[in-house]
Amino acid sequence: MKYDFDKIVDRHGTDCYKWDMIAKRKLPADTLPLWVADMDFETVPEVKERLKEVADRGIYGYSMLGDGYYHALKNWFSERFGWQVEKDWVIVTPGVVFALAAAVRAYTKEGDSVMIQRPVYHPFTNVVKENGRKLVNNPLVMENGKYHMDYEDMERKITEEQVKLFLLCSPHNPVSRVWTKEELCQAAEICKKHGVIMIVDEIHCDFVYEGYYHTSFGTLSEYADNAVICTAPSKTFNLAELQLSNIMIPNPELRKTFQAEMDKVFYSDANLFGQVSCQAAYEYGAQWLDELRVYLQGNITYIRDYLAEHLPKVHLIEPEGTYLLWADFREYGLSAEALNAKILKDARIWFNEGSMFGPEGAGFMRINIASPRSMIVEAMERLGEVFGE
Question: Where is the Aminotransferase class I/classII large domain (predicted)?
């Protein structure tokens, strides 16, 4: 490999949310933080160099998105997903969650029903409730260790609850599903039939493992006009705090409505360093990402093998995408609170407790595997010491 993902980067004392929250929560200093979704890997070297070049200018006045930015964006989505993105479709926001909240306000009014699919990334719930909308849950169904959409329940609730907006996570966080084209089309057809606008969060689209393929919603020509597609370089290249996301809206009327909501909060200029990092990542990051995905696959293989040999009661949901694993600890018979305490206090590992993604996640843990292999090995050995028989 050209890139060294085994390198340990000490993030302590850098106001790093992932690591410095350990001290703030008064947890043991050697706690391993495999929770919040950022990575313990340095970003693409060319991104670092480009940021240094811009920093050295010494002037950080108003900027604008240049042609090079859109060219890099269009090339990335064309080459990786076969999606031909038009410049006019792109609206920049400081984050995907910001965009989800803006979409809820733009396309619904207070009291309207918005559908999500739990267990799901917890801000999906928050952006609905905090904006005074009615939450309608179409829970995912697990059969034989794999999650599926319940289309019958989806259509029934859309009709009964008069749902106006559907928030779809694709690939799905936390259950790691990479929805097939057929699955996406079936959900899209129901929404189109009932006049429900779809907001599709594709922030994890670049992390898909061997044997699976991410179908970008924008490539579904029959349904893309009914969708707002949310993307960002932040998860892919570890750029979250540079706060830039690209929201693609092919339908001009939906785009106009979304832009009107952006105008209400007077957000107009993307962060300069966010612009620079996004463009450089999409221009130079392909090999880095491809090698990273191979490395993450190695982490998955190690965890899968370790659990099978030492902790057979922990059932790993087969990961199809994202760098977040969904592990089923229910066979231990512990409450969600007791399970979390045992892992956090006894094993000194910080996972995301499953019920934060909805009550359907109780007894599960979300595990961030985007760390050097040595950390993953240490975490598994600690689990084995605490849960081994």
Answer: 33-383
